[in-house]
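pasting for ref
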Amino acid sequence: MRRFLFLISISSIIPVFSQPSISGAGYSSPVPLRVAPGQVITLFVQAPDSQLTDPVSAPEGLPLPAMLAGVSVDYLQGADHPAAIKEVRPISSCLGIPQPAGGTCTTILAVTAQLPFEMLTLCPLCGRLDIPAFLSVSVDGVASALQSVQPLSDQAHILTTCDVIVAHSTSRPNSAFPCPPMVKHADGALVSAANPAAVGEQLAAYALGLGQTDPPLADGQPAADAFPTQTVFAIDFNYRPNALATQPLGPSFIGPPGGYPTPLFTGAVAGFVGLYEIDFVVPPAPDGLIGCVDRAAVTPYSVIVQSNLTVSIGSPFSFDGVGICVAAGG
């Protein structure tokens, strides 16, 4: 799953204007939304009557509440399963873009919540092919219309510094460069053009939506330990410059001889709600590898090597990948 699907706009949940409005475009249906057990997700909700002016976060060190700042999220699948709310943040619909004369900006609530682990997911081998499920958001006691969702075992998303859960950004990022991924060295520093990875080095990528672990995690509760995911994810390495993500499907599916490898570890991060870590070793680089160019040293929109290794993880249900920088000649 591309990272752009992590920040999901559900502006149709609470109608504000009577005239039609275009909320997205593409080459496939934007619904149903795909969700996974325990997934931390940010929903953007039009709430014209909300009086919230400052962000409200759940208290640290305590289980996440089912309601925060008058906002709640319900996952409906046979029964009502309240989601755990991590943060409610009011932002402007203009996102820093100047409006024409007479134009106005509206308030949107960025609601970050953890969906329940107990959702029943799609399972072709089990005969579960059609599972009606819905999301609803309530603001100050007023419930939205139901939004159809498709529950899957995982919905992989590798975090970047521009994700709302990381950056709390209220303005548009510089579109000249992709958002740096949350891939770190052993000392905790981000991998970048100025601080590239080395061949043979072990790195950690941070992600959301990797599903249930073994033993299982509880809704809204920080992970007690680094429990591995129930799903076995495959990993793919692509040394082409600025390459997009690919979907590795594991050794039992079509792929390179012997199948795709798996990460060293894929599981929960102890002490955090809904956060996962993916550990892997940087593979040998091809001869003539071109190093990345530091974005601070180039003119915006230049055609440069922004990443020279794309790391992708995936399962039959979802995948995501990020480009990182590896030192040339390593």
